[in-house]
Amino acid sequence: MRTSDLARLPILAMLWGGSFLLYRIVTPVLGTIVSTEARVAIAGIVLLALQMSVGPRFEWRRHATAMTAVGLFNSAVPFSLFGFATHTLPTAYLAIINATSPLFGAVIARVWLGGALNLTRSLGIATGVVGVIALVGLGPVATDPTTAIAIAACLVAAASYGFATNYTRQLAHPVPPTTMATGSQFAAALWVVPLLPLEPLHAMPSGAMVGATLILAIACTSLAYLLYFRLISDLGATRALTVTFLIPLFATAWAWLILDEVPTPRMGIGGALVLIATWLIVRTSRAAVPKAAFR
């Protein structure tokens, strides 16, 4: 692995870890739906500008179905569900549960695509389940129906990511990464628009809140996608997925520094088990790991 690749991994993890922190800041003011709509719409505009300036011709019609599906399962659904959970769960919880995405991807690959589910991957899935249970039972958040619903929302979001990875893997006509990223963000924005009347603004956003939203959309979505595409190109999907190990660390650090969310040793137990489980999944052969989607 080149030095430049080693540098991109922590930068990408820092950006995606920061997205959970920014959601914790933005959603109480803008609401879950408006926050998600702003994120995907602004990210789509930025990516389209880059696509038109340096990329090939944007083939909307040819890839419309794929971009629409990926926009739903890789952005609209998980962004909304994680945004909903930010009202209840600490930032570290969100990032740790997000790290179960490769586990869901492995299970879905086995059921849908007939992928191999060997002993190592089975052990990884079992460890991930235990890790989530430990996180719920040992963490600082009280276990009540509200918490359970929020955790379930995060798990559904992680499963949605897992579905999206397998969907992109089985496309008969693969879509260029930058085209998929741009089109899927616009598709996600269209998916979310009908939900806007269900949740009006909680309060008028301040200048700082607008700035946080722009950082979430431009840095944590548009820029992060570009870094991820480069990693996939240089390292392959399997090795690029190692960024999953770093995201909870950065998310926890951001939350500690900015929101005073102090991590606990008990929380570390659940997080460590989830990361070990993810490692067991990612370390398998490239053929066995679902192709990375556009997070």
Question: What key phrases describe this protein's structure?
Answer:
disordered C terminus, 295 residues, mainly alpha, 0% strand, 76% helix, 12 helices
SSE layout:
Layout: H1 3-30, H2 32-54, H3 64-85, H4 91-98, H5 101-113, H6 119-138, H7 145-169, H8 177-192, H9 207-235, H10 237-240, H11 243-259, H12 265-282
Proportion of helical residues: over 70%
Termini distance?
A: 22 Å
Q: Average pLDDT, to the nearest integer? A: 81
Radius of gyration: 18 Å
Number of strands: 0
Count of discrete structural domains: 1
Order of helices and strands: HHHHHHHHHHHH
Task: Give unreliable regions as ranges.
Answer: 285-295
The major beta sheet can be summarized as: none
Name the structural class. mainly alpha
Q: What percentage of amino acids are in beta strands?
A: under 5%
> How many helical elements?
12
The oligomeric state of the chains shown is: single chain
Shape descriptor: globular
